[in-house]
Amino acid sequence: MIKITFPDDSVREYAEGTTAMQIAESISSRLAQDVLAASVNGEIWDLTRPITSDSAVKLFKWDDAEGKHAFWHSSAHLMAEALQELFPGTKFGIGPAIENGFYYDVDPETPIKDSDFPAIEAKMLELVARKESIKRESISKEDAIKMFGDRGETYKTELIGELADGTITTYTQGNFTDLCRGPHLPNTSYIKAVKILSVAGAYWRGDEKRKQLVRLYGITFPKKKMLDEYLALLEEAKKRDHRKLGKELELFTFSQAVGQGLPLWLPRGTQLRMRLEDFLKRIQKRYGYQQVITPHIGQKELYITSGHYAKYGKDSFQPIHTPQDGEEFLLKPMNCPHHCEIFKAFPRSYKDLPIRFAEFGTVYRYEQSGELHGLTRVRGFTQDDAHLFCRPDQLKDEFLKVMDIIFIIFKALDFENFEAQISLRDPNNKEKYIGSDENWDKAERAIVEACQEKGLKAKVELGEAAFYGPKLDFMVKDAIGRRWQLGTIQVDYNLPERFELEYTGDDNKKHRPVMIHRAPFGSMERFVAVLIEHTGGKFPLWLTPDQVVIMPISEKFNEYAYKVSSMLEDQDIRVLVDDRNEKIGRKIRDNELKRIPYMLVVGEKEAENDEVSVRKQGEGDKGSMNITTFASLLNAEVEEMMNHWQKKEGK
């Protein structure tokens, strides 16, 4: 008999060789129907894999990320099996589960087009109906190379060549066998609804110098209703796509002449972005931050010292050479080395700390053209960066204050549905990181304790830390339930050592400060993209570039429209005048599409009485009112919004 320990610390005995599925069946038949995967001593396993020793076991259902992962990983194999039947001679690359669904990179002999999607879906459902068992097998490296080599699977044999003997497993369903670590579902019958979403190109192993494969994306569900709901969500997401709305609202653009991944901010987008920056600057001033400005380039040696060149140099923009022989500069990939040098510029005392440097600093990182996506994946972006230098005894308090700033921003912009993740280093792969075990232990402990003190439930993820330190990341859910990573706080004992940063303590000896990296927005580009999609382009009244549009009924009232505009601008209200020679109905429709919160119609009656006829976005006609009254009401609405988050924060 073996002892199985459950998450609630209860223990049951089972016969040696019992599977996770049998354990689920012993608890309830309902659980056995719902369970998709299990963890055994922290490792994710198939439900049908025998457990041969005392173990801690946790069972995962659809609502668990681990359950979805097994479901979608099996679905990737199902799609590959269908492709093998429909497109003979196809060679297979990799087919992982992703956050929503799965993909498979394949090299078919004939092209796969959108018009092939229905046939692929039908074949997948046919294979589902066969209820094919998914069987795991350990295999030697020699046998694996022979098996996949005989089939002409050049991509698989390349992967096998990099694996250690004794660690290789395959999964087989029907006539399809794949190189895979798993885990997988017991059989294909769990999959009830199938949709192929898109086809794209992807270089093998992300290398532009290698062959471009076909990347086929799909998604599956255990119920048809779930697929219907997801497809409805996709349609809503298309309407909210920041690339589409960014163009419609005239916020930003891209130019091939300027270069891929380098956004150009248009006047309205610049207003929006500057308003966000001003908002954060006001908060930072309250918390004792000092603004700094640093160059867009730095000497290569600066980033060698920081460690960024070793980590990013090969994949970044190539060095800039000057007429001076041997002199090399790099486009700035990070702001932190520059801020370290600012700290180092003067002698520092323990009385000076904490010192908080903040900068909206533009940085540059080379991304492959196939990875670029609107504002969310670019080659030049501006971080709302700050670096705090403090004594070890100040670390937790400073970390807590940064958390407060992030909470203020989320509340002000209605991102109140969020999750936190503590990202720690991989204890089994420490060579990926710089710094001593002692410093890492102290930094990781400080983050965990700060979250406990705030009562913030944070998921712990091993292996997700930055190379120089652990971090606390915030994932927000937008209005249609999608998760976005926004906001990060990182503790760093390592850069102060690398840059030999010092302060004089109260013992008159030299000490190393602790450094905190933080970016509540993350990057201005990505944050604006998420904000556009979260709001559908209907920004909060305090933030929107244009709060009011004035629409004269005819050209006769243009002069009055501009008079109203001038009066509102005197009240710090952002105004447009739509004086086009168009019918008023057309003007109303066009400006509704621009998501301008208030539309003011002016004609003869309004001009005679110094009034405006008010329409509110989404609410329609609000009646006529005096210009001064309207200005007071709008500013009171903005004031209420700003006070709303301040009251919540107790400021």
Automatic annotation (TrEMBL):
<keyword id="KW-0963">Cytoplasm</keyword>
<comment type="subunit">
    <text>Homodimer.</text>
</comment>
<dbReference type="Pfam" id="PF02824">
    <property type="entry name" value="TGS"/>
</dbReference>
<protein>
    <recommendedName>
        <fullName>Threonine--tRNA ligase</fullName>
        <ecNumber>6.1.1.3</ecNumber>
    </recommendedName>
</protein>
<dbReference type="Pfam" id="PF07973">
    <property type="entry name" value="tRNA_SAD"/>
</dbReference>
<keyword id="KW-0479">Metal-binding</keyword>
<keyword id="KW-0030">Aminoacyl-tRNA synthetase</keyword>
<dbReference type="InterPro" id="IPR045864">
    <property type="entry name" value="aa-tRNA-synth_II/BPL/LPL"/>
</dbReference>
<dbReference type="InterPro" id="IPR002320">
    <property type="entry name" value="Thr-tRNA-ligase_IIa"/>
</dbReference>
<keyword id="KW-0820">tRNA-binding</keyword>
<dbReference type="Pfam" id="PF00587">
    <property type="entry name" value="tRNA-synt_2b"/>
</dbReference>
<dbReference type="GO" id="GO:0004829">
    <property type="term" value="F:threonine-tRNA ligase activity"/>
</dbReference>
<keyword id="KW-0862">Zinc</keyword>
<dbReference type="InterPro" id="IPR004095">
    <property type="entry name" value="TGS"/>
</dbReference>
<keyword id="KW-0067">ATP-binding</keyword>
<feature type="binding site">
    <location>
        <position position="517"/>
    </location>
    <ligand>
        <name>Zn(2+)</name>
    </ligand>
</feature>
<dbReference type="InterPro" id="IPR033728">
    <property type="entry name" value="ThrRS_core"/>
</dbReference>
<dbReference type="InterPro" id="IPR012947">
    <property type="entry name" value="tRNA_SAD"/>
</dbReference>
<dbReference type="GO" id="GO:0005524">
    <property type="term" value="F:ATP binding"/>
</dbReference>
<dbReference type="InterPro" id="IPR002314">
    <property type="entry name" value="aa-tRNA-synt_IIb"/>
</dbReference>
<keyword id="KW-0694">RNA-binding</keyword>
<keyword id="KW-0547">Nucleotide-binding</keyword>
<dbReference type="Pfam" id="PF03129">
    <property type="entry name" value="HGTP_anticodon"/>
</dbReference>
<keyword id="KW-0436">Ligase</keyword>
<keyword id="KW-0648">Protein biosynthesis</keyword>
<feature type="binding site">
    <location>
        <position position="387"/>
    </location>
    <ligand>
        <name>Zn(2+)</name>
    </ligand>
</feature>
<feature type="domain" description="TGS">
    <location>
        <begin position="1"/>
        <end position="61"/>
    </location>
</feature>
<dbReference type="InterPro" id="IPR012675">
    <property type="entry name" value="Beta-grasp_dom_sf"/>
</dbReference>
<dbReference type="GO" id="GO:0000049">
    <property type="term" value="F:tRNA binding"/>
</dbReference>
<dbReference type="InterPro" id="IPR036621">
    <property type="entry name" value="Anticodon-bd_dom_sf"/>
</dbReference>
<comment type="similarity">
    <text>Belongs to the class-II aminoacyl-tRNA synthetase family.</text>
</comment>
<dbReference type="InterPro" id="IPR012676">
    <property type="entry name" value="TGS-like"/>
</dbReference>
<dbReference type="GO" id="GO:0006435">
    <property type="term" value="P:threonyl-tRNA aminoacylation"/>
</dbReference>
<dbReference type="InterPro" id="IPR018163">
    <property type="entry name" value="Thr/Ala-tRNA-synth_IIc_edit"/>
</dbReference>
<feature type="binding site">
    <location>
        <position position="336"/>
    </location>
    <ligand>
        <name>Zn(2+)</name>
    </ligand>
</feature>
<feature type="domain" description="Aminoacyl-transfer RNA synthetases class-II family profile">
    <location>
        <begin position="241"/>
        <end position="552"/>
    </location>
</feature>
<dbReference type="InterPro" id="IPR047246">
    <property type="entry name" value="ThrRS_anticodon"/>
</dbReference>
<dbReference type="GO" id="GO:0005737">
    <property type="term" value="C:cytoplasm"/>
</dbReference>
<dbReference type="InterPro" id="IPR004154">
    <property type="entry name" value="Anticodon-bd"/>
</dbReference>
<dbReference type="GO" id="GO:0046872">
    <property type="term" value="F:metal ion binding"/>
</dbReference>
<dbReference type="InterPro" id="IPR006195">
    <property type="entry name" value="aa-tRNA-synth_II"/>
</dbReference>
